[in-house]
What we know:
The protein is mostly helical. Helix content is 60%, strand content 4%. This is DinB-like domain-containing protein.
Amino acid sequence: MQSGTSSERSGLAKRFGEVEREVADFFSSLRDDEFVHRVNDAWTPAEHLHHLNIGVSAVAKALGYPKLLPRVLFGRARGPSRTFEAVRDTYRGLLAGGGGATGAYVPPRDDPAAAQVPAHREALLARWGRVNARLVAAAESWTDAHLDRIRLPHPILGKLTVREMLFFTLYHNTHHVAAAKRRLDRFRSET
């Protein structure tokens, strides 16, 4: 989401559709060897996509709960939601300070045999479509007021308003595409 892009619920829904397609198009465009290319201990593109599936699924699940539950568990926001840029910049700062995925958000190391890569990619991309559809459907029941009042926990960023969590999720998806590109020779000049 670029500066000046609408942060209203309708603008967020449109942007989620765009990012879902950007991510799917990128991972679909990779050759099989690129999709599972490992550089040292860094995640492969397949593992990046698996991680995105985990994260988007968790947000979709949280948005599917009755609104009273996160409000009781995590409290009400005391101030306005931060902008997309503020959430993004805070996250980047925490990553630069050594923050990263932990626990259930770390994809299992996966090195499928060459013959299994197409089916593995197809399964991950199918899940990508499903978790994004669930997220957008769940977000439809949230008003702009709810997005700014109710909070959810983030493992690195702490408690975020739901709007901030959606901003984070948008950025996080594109962040992982960029991370996967940095380790693939044909994309190095773009990053």
